[in-house]
Amino acid sequence: QQQVKQSPQSLIVQKGGISIINCAYENTAFDYFPWYQQFPGKGPALLIAIRPDVSEKKEGRFTISFNKSAKQFSLHIMDSQPGDSATYFCAPRVGGSARQLTFGSGTQLTVLP
Amino acid sequence: GAGVSQTPSNKVTEKGKYVELRCDPISGHTALYWYRQSLGQGPEFLIYFQGTGAADDSGLPNDRFFAVRPEGSVSTLKIQRTERGDSAVYLCASSPDREGGYTFGSGTRLTVV
Fold first, then answer.
1. Disulfide: which of A3, B15, B33, B62 matches B93 by Cβ 3.0-4.6 Å?
2. Is the per-residue pLDDT at A2 higher than 80?
3. Chain center to CA of B103
4. Cβ distance of A1 and B4 shorter than 8 Å
C-alpha cells in the first residue's frame, strides 16, 4: 500500500522540543487529510485533520501544514511532552462515496523527560 | 456505551478453525468500519457498512472473510479456516454519518497458532 509514505519511522525528541512528522501521497483524489494518534493496546484516535482548501490548521500544540502541489502534509507538535509519546499515522481519504482511510506505516514518537 | 466496544479483546485459535469477532459501535452511529493492523504497520481497510448493508467490501482479502451487520448496529467479522497470516489486531470504528470522524475501538488481537 504505497499510496502514502510516512517519515520518519521513529523520532526521539527532548521535552519542550518540536516534533515533525511528514506524509507524502500519490492519489490526487484524496480530499481529507487527518493525523491519528495511537497508544499501545488502543485504537487510533483522531488528532487533527485538514481539508485541501487551506494550507495550515492549528489546534493547541498541534499544527498540520498542507502542500497540495507537492502532495505532502506534515504534523508539527510544539512543546512536545512525554505524554505525547505514541505512534502517529497519517490517513488520507478519497472524496465522494469512498469512505476508507489509507494509513501510512506510522511514526513512533518518544519524548524524553 | 460511551465508546466502540470490541469483544473479545484477545483470541487465540488453531489454524483451520472458525472465529467471530464482535463490534458494538457508538449508539446512533450509522457508519461502521473494520480494519486490520499487523504488527508495526498502519491499519488496512477491510469493509464499510452504512446501516445494514456493506457499502464497500473491497478490502476483504479473500472469501474466508465475511462481515454482517443485520440490524444496523452490532457487527460481526467472521473468518473461516483461519491461517497463521490472519494473526493481527482487528479494529472496528464507527461514525455518526458519511462525513463524521471515526471513533475506533481498542481492537481484538487474533493469534492463529
1. B33
2. no
3. 13
4. no
Q: How does pLDDT run across B12-60, given as a tens digit for each residue?
A: 999 999 999 999 999 989 999 999 999 999 999 999 999 898 889 999 9
Residues 25-84 on B with a CB inside 8 Å of A are 31, 33, 35, 40-45, 48, 55-56, 59
CATH superfamily for A1-46+67-79+105-113 is Immunoglobulins (2.60.40.10)
Quick check: A102 and B45 CB within 8 A? Answer: yes
C-alpha cell at A5: 509514505
Please give the grid coordinates belonging to residue B34.
473494520
- Domains of chain B in start order, with CATH, are 5-99 (2.60.40.10)
Separation in Å, CA A25 to CA A6, A10, A86, A93, B96: 9, 19, 22, 11, 27
Q: Where are the alpha helices (DSSP H) in B21-89?
A: none
CA distance A100 to chain B (A): 6
Residue B71: the pLDDT is 92
Q: For chain B, give the percent of residues with pLDDT over 70.
A: 96
Domain ranges of chain A: 1-46+67-79+105-113
